[in-house]
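Need residues for this backbone.
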């Protein structure tokens, strides 16, 4: 008999111009083993209920997330939520996450983790206390090539890491977008909803996570330079940091939302003692390797041969895992689906009383989310001090 599909509840995602709910929605339904069944879609009760009534398929709509969480005790085991997805602005991550955990409901939360570092620290404590799976939606960990790049670097194939350039460039805030009624811009440039940094929290945390995940290294000190190029904007739209790594190497983590011509240009270049690895989000089917005195090597998802003179053994799970044959490109939605697929494994293990992985290998953990907030706080503190080096962990 096939498994019962997991029931997923959604908090947020019903506002005008809401974007991130849609790739999550496709990812949740991608395998037929998960389904969205309930939602508190807006912050105002009447709007939330109206949004649920107008959803493309039937949902149990709630006027508030408190109502959705409280209602679980009134439902049969087959109807109760197996996990909750939070896709609200940053200031509405902490409270519903803690309440879900307290109710025994695993949580998958959009990044950045919370509004402040203090909230993130409290959320880490809550996950430890209630012992339920918790994931952070760092999308780009879901690309197969990200996982392959991690294997190459952590296997030592390009040697000790000397230098990393991790970046994420966009152009959608190059003008006064928030004054044009674009709701996704309005809340991101509002300190009350977004926190102490716009571009750093929004996409700088992605650039940090890619660096940490692919290299297996930690950032231990940061010099930050936050800039605001659009007049009248309360938060930064350009965020540059120079960093020290846990192995003694150095790294540039830089993001911009005013770089005209760049859409979602995220990437990473890792320079080691033996070679260089390059990963690019907009060409995420490939990894490029540069070795001294050798032709460039380009590895494609689904077409990797172990023991080829550079690669050595590769774990079978990595080779078997791609969902599409070579030449049929995976993309953004596939990356989201991979994250939810791995999260499902941990939720089912949790429900069965078994140990689950949850260690930040298959998706970002709550501790990864906390480190993202610590990084942003360090960069802001450094920038206010004229680029002074700030150590953090």
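Answer:
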């Amino acid at each position: 008999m096939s498994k019962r599909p997991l029931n997923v509840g959604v908090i947020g995602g019903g506002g005008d111009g809401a974007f991130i709910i849609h790739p999550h929605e496709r990812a949740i339904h991608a395998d037929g083993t998960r389904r969205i069944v309930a939602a508190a879609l807006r912050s105002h009760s009447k709007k939330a209920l109206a949004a649920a009534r107008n959803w493309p398929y039937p949902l149990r709509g709630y006027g508030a997330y408190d109502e959705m969480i409280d209602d679980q005790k009134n439902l049969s085991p087959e109807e109760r939520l197996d996990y909750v997805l939070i896709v609200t602005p940053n200031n509405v991550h902490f409270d519903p996450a803690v309440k879900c955990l307290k109710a025994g409901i695993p949580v998958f939360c959009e990044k950045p983790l919370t509004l402040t570092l203090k909230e993130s620290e409290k959320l880490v404590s809550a996950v430890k206390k209630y012992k339920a799976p918790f994931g952070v939606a760092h999308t780009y960990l879901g690309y197969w090539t990200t996982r392959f790049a991690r294997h190459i670097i952590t296997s030592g194939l390009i040697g000790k890491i000397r230098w990393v350039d991790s970046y994420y460039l966009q152009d959608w805030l190059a003008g006064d977008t928030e004054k044009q009624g674009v709701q996704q811009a309005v809340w991101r440039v509002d300190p009350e909803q977004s926190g102490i940094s716009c571009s750093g929290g929004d996409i700088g945390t992605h650039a940090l996570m890619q660096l940490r995940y692919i290299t297996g290294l930690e950032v231990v000190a940061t010099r930050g330079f936050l800039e605001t190029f659009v007049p009248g904007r309360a938060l930064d739209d350009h965020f540059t940091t120079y960093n020290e790594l846990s192995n003694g190497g150095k790294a540039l983590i830089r993001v911009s939302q005013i770089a005209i011509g760049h859409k979602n240009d995220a990437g990473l270049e890792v320079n080691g003692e033996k070679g260089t690895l390059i990963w690019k989000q907009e060409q995420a089917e490939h990894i490029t390797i540069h070795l001294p005195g050798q032709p460039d090597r380009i590895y494609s998802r689904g077409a990797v041969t172990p023991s080829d003179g550079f690669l050595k053994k590769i774990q079978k799970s990595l080779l078997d895992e791609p969902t599409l044959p070579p030449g049929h490109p995976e993309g953004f939605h596939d990356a989201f689906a991979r994250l939810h697929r791995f999260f499902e494994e941990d939720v089912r293990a949790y429900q069965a009383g078994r140990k689950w992985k949850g260690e930040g290998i298959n998706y970002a953990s709550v501790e990864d989310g906390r480190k993202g907030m610590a990084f942003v706080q360090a960069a802001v503190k450094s920038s206010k001090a004229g680029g002074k080096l700030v150590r953090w962990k």
